[in-house]
Amino acid sequence: MTSRLNPYLSFDGDARQAMEFYEQVFGGTLALNTFGAFGMADSPQADNIMHGMLQTPSGFTLMGADMPPGEEYRPGNTFAVSLSGDDEAELRGYWEKLSAGGSVTVPLEKQMWGDVFGMCTDRFGVPWMVNIGEPTS
Question: Which residues form the Glyoxalase/fosfomycin resistance/dioxygenase domain (predicted)?
Answer without folding.
Answer: 4-130
